[in-house]
C-alpha cells in the first residue's frame, strides 16, 4: 500500500485550537482582567490621573505574574511591587530637577541591568524596574505629590498582587495541567523530528542539529513541569499529573534509546518502502502524544484514538520479504538486524504511549514523589544572594559590561529626547531602548526586529481602528483584547506582543485625549530613534559568545563523565534505583542546553565573531548521542536480562566506562591548543577483564550490546577530536 504523506505537527502555542487552553492565554486573560478591571473600579470613585497611576502599579506588577508555585509567585510579585515602588518614588522626587533626574535614570538603569546576573527569572523584574522608571520620568511633582503618587502606585501593585494570588489559588491545579501539556506537545514535536530520520530526502546531519535544538526546548518545558508538579502534590488530581509526568520522562528515555545507525539503514534499504512506513508509524506516535496533551489541557482523561495497525502490517510484511532477500544475499543481515531492533523499540514506545493514556484516567500505583523521595535536585533553585551581584561588579563580567552599556544607551536616549521638537512623550525613546537592548547581541537583534515590525503594524492597525470606530465602549473592547494579547505572546512570539502593546498604549492615549491622532506618527519616530540607539550600543563593550565557549565545553565533558559513571552503576545494578542516574542525566542535558543556546546566539552575531561552528555542532551531537547510547544499553539489558553472562556484561560495562571516561578526560586537556591529541588506541581495550579481574567471555561482533559499546567508543573519540579542533580555533 502507498505510504501517506506526513502532516507537520502544529505549533502548540500559536495554534488557536490549543492556544485558548494554554497557560499563555490564561495569563493574558488574568492580567487584562486584573489591570483593566482595577482601573475601571478606581475610576468609579476617583479621577482619571488617579486611576491611571493605580493602573501603572498593577501593570508593572503583572510583568512578574508568571506560572509558578503559589509561594514563589507571591515572593516574586512582592519583590516587584517593592522594587518598583522605590523606583517610582526616587524618580518622581528627582523629576523637577532635570540634571538630577538624568543622573538617577542612569543609576537606576545600571542597577536594574545588574539584576540579570540572577538569570532568566530576574529578566522580567529588571524590565519592570526600567518600565516604571520611564513612565515616572515625566512626573514633575513636589515632595507631597510624589509621596501621594507613590502611595497610589503601591496600592495598585498590592491590589493586583492580591487579585492574582486569589485567582492563582483557585486555578493552581489548572496551571499544572497546562504546563505539563506544553511539555507533552514539545515531546510530540521531538518525536516528529525523529520520524524524519527515516526519510531518504532529509539530510542526516542537519536533522541531528534540528533534533538537538528541539531537545533543548523540550528540556526547558520539562523543567517547568518538574518545578510545578513535583512541588505541593496533595490530592488525587495532582497524583494523576505526577503519574503522567513520570510516564513522560520514561517515554522520553525510551525514545532516546531508539537512536540507531540511520546511515546503514539508508544505504542498504534505500529502495525499500519499509523506511517510509517507519516514518509514518513514528509520526502517528507523535500525533498520539499530542492527543494526550490536548486532553490534559481540557481537564479530561485521554483515550487512544489512533490506530497503528496499517503501518504495522505493512512493516511486518516488508520484514518478511527482506528476510527472504537476506537469505538470497540481496540485503545485508546487519541492516536487517538493525531494522528489526528499531521496529521493536518503536512498538515498545507505542505501548508506553498507551500507558500514558491510562495514566491520565486514574492513579495506577505508588508514585516516587508521594513516597518520601527528595525531588530537590530536579527542581530549579533560585537564589538572590547579594554576594553574587557584588562579585560581578568587575570589568570582566558580561553582566557588568551590559549594565554599563545600558546606562550609556539610556544617557544617549535622554539627549536625543531633549533634542526633539516635541517633548510630550519623548520617554518612548528611553522605553524603546530598555525593551530592545538585551545582555546578548543575539537577543538585541531579535528584539529590535520584532519591535520595529510590531510597532509599525500596531500603529497602522490603531490608525485604522480610530478612523472607523468612534464609540468609547468599542474602543475599550479593542483595548481589552490588546491588553490580553500583550502578555500572552511575550514568551511565544514577541512580535505579536509588540503589536498589541503599541495598540494598547495608543488606544489609552486616545481615550484620555481624543484629539491625539498625531501621537501615532511621533510614536513611530520615537521607536526608530530608540532602535537605532540600542543597535549602536549593542556594539559597545560587547561580550561576544565565543569567549564563554571553552568553559561551557568543559562543563559538558565533566557532566558527561559523571553521567557515564552513574549509568554504569545503574546498568550493573550497583544502585537500588535510577535516582542518581536521572539527576546526572538532567545535569548533562542542562550543560548541553547551555552550550547549544550559546552557539545559537553566536550565529546571530557578526560573522567575524563566529568560532568553530561546525566542530561545535558535531561536538554537541556526539555528546547527545552518548545519552542515546546509554539509554539503549539500559533497554538492551532489560530486554535480555535472562541468559546474559553477568560477569562478562559487567566487565564489558566497566571497561567501556573506563575507556570512554579516559577519552573524555583527554578531551578536556586538548581544549588547550598546545596539547597534542592522544591516539584513539591509547585507551584500554574493551572487554579485556571482568569486574572481578578475570578474563571476560568474548562477544560476537554482531551482538547488539557490543555494537552499542562500539558506537559509544566511536562517538567519544569524535568528541575528543572535535574538542582539540575547538581549542585550536578559539586560540587562533
UniProtKB/TrEMBL annotation:
Keyword Plastid attributed: no
GO cellular component terms, A-Z: plasma membrane
Keywords tagged on the record: Cell membrane, Membrane, Transmembrane, Transmembrane helix
Domain Integral membrane bound transporter: 415-535
Pfam families linked: FUSC-like, FUSC_2
Residues covered by the Integral membrane protein YccS N-terminal domain: 77-348
Compartment annotation: Cell membrane
Disordered as annotated region, ranges: 671-698
Segments traversing the membrane: 20-43, 74-93, 99-118, 147-171, 453-469, 475-494
Keyword Cell membrane: yes
Membrane-protein topology: Multi-pass membrane protein
Main location: membrane
Family named by the database record: Belongs to the YccS/YhfK family.
Protein name: Uncharacterized protein
Species of provenance: Collimonas fungivorans (strain Ter331)
Amino acid at each position: 500500500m502507498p505510504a501517506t504523506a506526513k502532516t507537520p505537527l502544529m505549533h502548540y502555542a500559536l495554534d488557536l485550537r490549543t492556544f485558548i487552553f494554554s497557560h499563555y492565554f490564561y495569563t493574558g486573560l488574568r492580567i487584562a482582567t486584573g489591570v483593566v478591571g482595577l482601573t475601571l473600579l478606581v475610576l468609579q470613585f476617583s479621577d482619571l490621573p488617579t486611576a491611571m497611576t493605580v493602573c501603572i502599579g498593577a501593570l508593572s506588577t503583572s510583568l512578574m505574574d508568571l506560572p509558578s508555585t503559589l509561594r514563589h509567585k507571591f515572593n516574586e510579585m512582592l519583590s516587584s511591587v517593592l522594587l518598583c515602588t522605590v523606583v517610582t518614588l526616587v524618580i518622581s522626587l528627582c523629576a523637577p530637577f532635570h540634571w538630577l533626574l538624568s543622573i538617577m535614570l542612569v543609576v537606576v538603569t545600571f542597577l536594574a541591568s545588574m539584576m540579570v546576573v540572577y538569570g532568566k527569572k530576574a529578566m522580567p523584574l529588571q524590565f519592570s524596574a526600567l518600565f516604571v522608571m520611564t513612565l515616572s520620568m515625566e512626573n514633575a511633582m513636589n515632595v507631597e505629590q510624589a509621596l501621594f503618587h507613590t502611595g497610589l502606585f503601591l496600592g495598585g501593585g498590592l491590589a493586583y498582587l492580591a487579585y492574582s494570588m486569589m485567582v492563582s489559588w483557585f486555578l493552581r491545579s489548572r496551571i499544572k495541567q497546562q504546563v505539563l501539556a506544553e511539555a507533552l506537545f514539545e515531546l510530540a514535536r521531538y518525536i516528529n523530528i525523529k520520524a524524519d530520520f527515516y526519510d531518504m530526502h532529509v539530510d542526516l546531519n542537519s536533522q541531528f542539529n534540528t533534533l538537538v535544538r528541539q531537545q533543548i526546548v523540550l528540556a526547558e518545558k520539562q523543567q517547568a513541569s518538574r518545578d510545578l508538579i513535583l512541588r505541593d502534590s496533595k490530592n488525587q488530581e495532582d497524583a494523576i499529573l505526577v503519574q503522567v509526568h513520570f510516564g513522560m520522562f520514561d517515554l522520553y528515555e525510551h525514545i532516546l534509546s531508539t537512536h540507531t545507525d540511520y546511515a546503514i539503514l539508508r544505504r542498504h534499504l534505500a529502495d525499500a518502502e519499509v523506511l517510509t512506513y517507519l516514518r509514518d508509524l513514528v509520526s502517528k506516535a507523535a500525533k498520539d502524544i499530542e492527543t494526550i496533551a490536548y486532553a490534559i489541557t481540557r481537564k479530561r482523561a485521554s483515550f487512544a484514538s489512533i490506530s497503528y495497525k496499517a503501518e504495522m502490517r505493512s512493516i511486518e510484511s516488508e520484514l518478511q520479504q527482506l528476510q527472504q532477500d537476506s537469505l538470497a544475499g540481496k540485503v545485508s543481515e546487519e541492516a536487517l538486524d538493525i531494522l528489526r531492533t528499531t521496529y521493536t523499540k518503536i512498538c515498545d514506545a507505542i505501548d508506553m504511549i498507551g500507558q500514558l493514556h491510562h495514566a491520565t484516567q486514574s492513579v495506577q500505583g505508588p508514585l516516587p514523589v508521594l513516597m518520601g523521595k527528595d525531588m530537590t535536585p530536579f527542581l530549579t533553585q533560585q537564589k538572590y544572594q547579594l554576594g553574587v551581584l557584588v562579585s560581578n561588579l568587575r570589568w570582566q563580567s558580561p553582566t557588568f559590561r551590559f549594565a554599563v552599556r545600558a546606562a550609556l544607551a539610556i544617557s544617549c536616549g535622554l539627549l536625543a529626547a531633549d533634542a526633539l521638537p516635541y517633548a510630550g512623550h519623548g520617554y518612548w525613546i528611553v522605553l524603546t531602548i530598555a525593551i530592545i537592548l538585551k545582555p546578548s547581541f543575539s537577543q538585541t537583534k531579535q528584539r529590535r526586529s520584532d519591535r520595529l515590525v510590531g510597532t509599525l503594524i500596531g500603529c497602522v492597525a490603531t490608525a485604522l481602528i480610530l478612523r472607523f470606530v468612534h464609540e468609547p465602549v468599542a474602543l475599550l473592547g479593542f483595548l481589552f483584547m490588546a491588553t490580553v494579547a500583550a502578555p500572552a505572546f511575550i514568551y511565544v512570539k514577541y512580535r505579536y506582543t509588540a503589536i498589541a502593546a503599541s495598540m494598547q498604549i495608543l488606544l489609552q492615549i486616545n481615550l484620555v485625549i481624543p484629539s491625539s491622532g498625531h501621537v501615532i506618527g511621533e510614536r513611530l519616530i520615537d521607536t526608530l530613534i530608540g532602535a537605532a540607539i540600542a543597535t549602536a550600543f549593542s556594539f559597545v563593550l560587547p561580550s561576544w559568545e565565543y569567549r564563554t565557549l571553552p568553559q561551557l565545553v568543559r562543563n559538558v565533558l565533566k557532566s558527561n563523565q559523571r553521567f557515564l559513571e552513574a549509568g554504569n552503576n545503574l546498568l550493573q545494578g550497583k544502585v537500588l534505583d535510577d535516582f542518581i542516574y536521572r539527576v546526572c542525566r538532567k545535569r548533562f542535558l542542562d550543560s548541553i542546553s547551555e552550550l547549544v543556546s550559546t552557539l545559537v546566539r553566536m550565529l546571530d552575531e557578526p560573522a567575524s565573531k563566529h568560532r568553530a561552528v561546525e566542530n561545535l555542532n558535531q561536538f554537541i551531537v556526539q555528546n547527545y548521542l552518548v545519552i542515546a547510547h546509554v539509554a539503549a544499553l539500559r533497554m538492551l539489558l532489560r530486554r535480555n536480562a535472562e541468559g546474559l553472562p553477568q560477569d562478562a556484561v559487567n566487565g564489558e560495562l566497566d571497561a567501556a566506562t573506563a575507556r570512554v571516561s579516559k577519552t573524555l578526560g583527554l578531551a578536556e586537556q586538548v581544549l588547550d591548543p598546545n596539547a597534542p591529541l592522544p591516539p584513539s588506541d591509547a585507551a584500554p581495550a574493551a572487554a579485556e577483564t571482568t569486574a572481578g579481574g578475570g578474563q571476560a567471555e568474548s562477544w560476537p561482533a554482531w551482538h547488539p550490546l557490543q555494537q552499542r559499546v562500539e558506537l559509544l567508543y566511536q562517538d567519544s573519540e569524535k568528541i575528543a577530536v572535535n574538542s582539540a579542533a575547538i581549542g585550536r580555533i578559539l586560540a587562533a
